[in-house]
Each structure stands twice: as structure tokens, then as C-alpha cells.
Amino acid sequence: MDALTERFERERPRLRAAAYRMLGSAAEADDAVQEAWLRFHRTSAAEIDNVPAWLTTVVARVCLSALRARRNHPEEALDGQPEPDDERRDPAQEAELADEVGLALLVVLDTLAPAERVAFVLHDMFAVPFDEIAPMLGKTPAATRQLASRARRRVKGGTAAEDLPRRRKVVEAFLAASRGGDFEALLALLDPEVVLHADRFVGPSPAPIVLRGVESVRRGAILASERARASELALVDGAPGLLMVREGRLAVVLAFQVDGDRIKGIEVIADPDRLAKLELAVIG
């Protein structure tokens, strides 16, 4: 038993890293790894030719089932009520794992179909060959390659704006100034006639919010500095924007209208229906 445990523990960090990227939840990743351990414990080691590959297959199939169940039975947000796994969630642990992967990448991965996500994570992040991934998904190697390729295009985004580097620089500067509460830097970035629109889901007001003028928008950005610390740069419909993540899930998106080196408009989106329709991608 000690030898069996030792073999499994050597693989645990890799299995957990893969499961977290496939599921986006530390608690669910731990469950998937634990299930792999239980199956490993019940199986004779003599029956397993390649232990790392066998364990990867088990974890991938558990994650695929969880992703499909999640898609078939999407969680319904209930204000004021914790999610089922809140008691098991370790915020510090979640933050550490998210930092390793990148919040933007986790959000974009969450937009992929289950099979696309598994194929992309295993092949592009863990170098598992397509002929090994294919049986996990019930696909041919060629079909699995297509799934990963489609996921890769989604993750990296399509054709971006020609002035992407300039827009990115402006949005990065806005994020840095908001996080640091830098009044002067924000003044330099915002057009005097800047307008901010926030939908009714942003809160705390039950109605949409409109802020006009550099002073109003600057104050709003300073007040949102805590949210900015949980934000990350990403492509939003092909242009640089910001993703705000809460407990591993996309909560708010900021889309920017940039003219030259100034921000002329900011749209703050928290409406779940609108968030689901946005084209999100990671900026390399």
C-alpha cells in the first residue's frame, strides 16, 4: 500500500494542475483527483502498463463528466445564498491556483465546450498526444485535433484591431491607475467628455448607471479600485478590455472606446446574458 500511495503522490501535483485547468475550481479538481486515487486503489497495479497515462485518463474522464453535467444543469445564481461548495472553498488556495493559470485564461476556457476544453488543456498545456486523448473523448485522433484547434482559436481570439498595441497600452495604464488610486494618471487617460455606462446588474443601484465627464468617471474608477485588483486584461470582442472575476467566475467586463491615447467611453457589463454572448480571448 505504501508503494501504491507513493506512486500516486508523485502524480498528484500534475493531476491536480490538469483538473483545475479543466474545471476552474480547486474543490472540484480535488474531487477529481480523489476519484482517480479511489479507482487506482481498486485496480491491480499489474493491470496498468503506464501509471501516469492511466491516471491522466481517469482524471480527464471525471472532469469531462463534470463539465457536461455543469452545461446540462447550469448553476442558478441565488442572491445571498452560498454555492454548494463554499464551505470547502479556500480563497487563498483558489487565488494561488488562479495566479498560476491566469484569470483571463480561466474565463475563456469556461466558454469552451467540454470536449474542446479537455482536448486543449491536455494537449496544449500538458503535451498529451492526440491519440491518447481521443479515447477519453470517444473521438478519432483527427477529430480530437480539430477540437483542440478550434479551442485554440477561441482562446487566442480571431482578427484583432489593427491598433491593438496602442489600445492595450491605454487599457493597461487605466488598470494600473485604478488599482493604485492614481488620480493624475486617470486624468491623463480619460477624455474630457468620457462617458461610462453600467448596466443594472453592476449595482448597487437597481437601474443602469451613466457617468459623464472626466471627474465623475475618475471618481468611479477610484471607488472600484478593489474590483480592479481582481481584474485582468483580455480581448473583449476583439479589443482590449478588462475581466473582473469573483470566486473563479466571470462577474463583470469593462469594454473601452479608445480614441488616440484617451478613453472616450467605458461600458461596464454584468448582465449574465450579455456576458455569455461576448467574444473573449487571452492577450498573449
Protein model, in words:
There is one protein chain. The protein is an alpha+beta fold. It contains 13 helices and 7 strands. The protein has helices at about 1-25, 25-40, 50-70, 90-100, 105-110, 115-125, 130-135, 140-155, 165-180, 185-190, 215-225, 225-230, 270-275; strands at about 190-200, 210, 230-235, 240-245, 250-260, 260-270, 280. Strands 2-1-6-5-4-3-7 form a 7-stranded mixed β-sheet, with helices on both faces. β3 (about 230-235) and β4 (about 240-245) form a beta hairpin. α3 packs across α7. Mean pLDDT is about 85; it is low at about 75-85.
Topology of this structure?
Blueprint: H1 2-23, H2 26-42, H3 51-72, H4 91-101, H5 103-109, H6 114-126, H7 130-137, H8 141-156, H9 164-180, H10 183-189, E1 190-198, E2 209-212, H11 214-223, H12 225-229, E3 231-236, E4 239-246, E5 249-259, E6 262-269, H13 272-277, E7 280-281
Parallel strand pairs: 1-6
Antiparallel strand pairs: 1-2, 3-4, 3-7, 4-5, 5-6
Helix pairs in contact: 1-2, 1-3, 2-3, 3-6, 3-7, 6-7, 6-8, 7-8, 9-10
Outline of this structure?
This protein has helices at 2-23, 26-42, 51-72, 91-101, 103-109, 114-126, 130-137, 141-156, 164-180, 183-189, 214-223, 225-229, 272-277; strands at 190-198, 209-212, 231-236, 239-246, 249-259, 262-269, 280-281. By secondary structure, the protein is an alpha+beta fold.
